[in-house]
Amino acid sequence: MSVQSPNAVVMIRPNNFKPNPETATDNRFQTIPNMPSAEISRQAQTEFDSAVARLKDAGVRVHVFQDRANDTPDSVFPNNWFSTHHGGHVAIYPMYAKSRRKERRTDVIEFLKQEYRVAEVTDFSGLEADGLSLEGTGAMVLDHIGRLAFVARSHRADPILLERFCTRFGYEPIVFDAADAGGSPVYHTNVLMFVGSACAMVGLGMVSNAERRQTISERLSETGRDVIALSESQIGDFAGNAIELTGTNGPVLALSSRAEKALSPDQRRRLEGSLTLLPLDLPIIESAGGSARCMIAGIHLAPRAKRNFN
């Protein structure tokens, strides 16, 4: 496992999956599949199971938890409510939409404590009562090497809470405005950009300010990364919503099949210079406005040593 690229992840198998009407107000990536709701949920479960199998085949350790609630349509996207960090740190986040606050699970945190070395859990979720939200590694794209937190301004990334997180966890915030051609703000930073160990992909053209575009590119390049610019069309195909993981044979890039098909031959060549592409079929799950990255909560924690008392 590298600093940026975890070899273990948490994923939540959905129970009653569907595009969430409450989050559709600011998530322009959502669509409504033309099929009965029961079939939408069933197909999402099939896609999830296939994605887990693909990740395991690549050598990634996947911890799967089954969602048992009926009123958590976005539970398949756990990276928004918690994150893990080197040194044994875990953060729990306040969510913008009330329907998403029920996704937080104590059993997941307790499991992490049992299986990994967790020194401290910082719970920001109580700040929902003050109208503050910071939706984890959806709102923030974290460069664990350069200690940078890239954040597109939105309802889901409160600046006060962002400052608290960065102070507590040791990141420098890089905040910017990003919008589509119609002027709608990007709801989550992780649909706009991916940061890996040796490369990054960013929808630079959607960053409103030219100076901030240059800053983003320069700060990523400082650590030797190849910065690949994505078009707005590619962002719409979820090409930015990817995550680098460590598999049996080295780093892999988990992204959707739709995202992989949107890449140009040159972009593919540059990515494959440092990792292996691992496309996952997620057309129904993507109707909820998130893709491969949103489904995967990386574990940046050291595993506990297995004790033998014999």
What does this structure look like?
The chain has helices spanning about 35-55, 105-115, 135-140, 160-170, 210-220, 230-235, 255-260, 265-270, 290-295; strands at about 10-15, 60-65, 80-85, 90, 120-125, 140-145, 150, 170-175, 195, 200, 225-230, 245, 250-255, 275-280, 295-300. The protein has a three-stranded mixed β-sheet. A three-stranded mixed β-sheet has the order 3-4-5, with no helix packed on it. It has a three-stranded mixed β-sheet with strand order 6-7-8, with helices on both faces. It has nine helices and 15 strands. The two termini are about 30 Å apart. The protein has about 300 residues and is an alpha/beta fold. A hairpin with a 4-residue loop joins β6 and β7. About 25% of the residues lie in helices and about 20% in strands. The mean pLDDT is about 95. The chain is globular.
